[in-house]
Amino acid sequence: MRRAALALVALAVLVVTSACHGGATELTPPNESNVKVDTPAYRTLKARAGIEDCPAAATTDGGLPSKSLPCLGGGRRVDLSTLKGPLLLNFWAASCGPCRKEMPALAAFYKKYGDRVGVLGIDSADTQPGSALELAKRSGVTYPLVADPGVDLQGTALTVRGYPTFFFLSADGTLSKPVAGGLASLDEVVALVEKQLGTRL
User: What does UniProt give as the signal peptide span (predicted)?
Assistant: First the structure.
């Protein structure tokens, strides 16, 4: 049973990484313990980038899966099920070309609207946390980032089939279906958020 589950995860990673142009080529997901996302160097890089601390628990009955992920660059672990909306979740990887192009627009959205709609970046299937943090810094990202190097979220309600991918959590705990990313501007991010969350910014 465990072998079958691991084979399914490996297949999911293959599908996910091949769906993004310039994506990673690794076929077997690493174990989280084999990818260090919290080192003194990463903490320094995160601080220099001005990336915010990962969110603390806000509820005991959220709409996200009960999965705990480490904070990219150090900090508290995040139990996703304790987060509340409105929240935009962005799955990305440093090796993904469309992710790199999209990140400045997400950074601009968070700076302008982050007090109304939270943003959480999920660095997924990524074995190079330093590269991910460098990309975030170059892109002006300040919203919180968690890491899912072992793609532990595959098989949950947060399963993705390509990068970048969005999910939206409404204030009442309703989780959207996955939405393909690749946005090019702040206006495009705003339009997508308004459509998915049924709100006006």
Answer: 1-21
pLDDT in tens, 89-136: 999 999 999 999 999 999 999 999 999 999 999 999 988 999 999 999
Q: What is the pLDDT of residues 15-69, one digit of tens each?
A: 444 445 444 333 455 565 578 999 999 999 999 999 999 999 988 778 999 999 9
What tokens does 81 get? Answer: 């099920």
Q: Does residue 164 have a cis peptide bond before it, meaning omega lies within 30 degrees of 0?
A: yes
Residue span of the structural domain in which 184 resides: 2-197
CATH number at residue 192: 3.40.30.10
Q: Give the pTM.
A: 0.84
| Cβ 64 vs Cβ 81: under 8 Å | yes
End-to-end CA distance of the chain: give it in Å, rounded: 47
Identify the bridge partners of residue 119 per DSSP, sorted by sequence position.
88
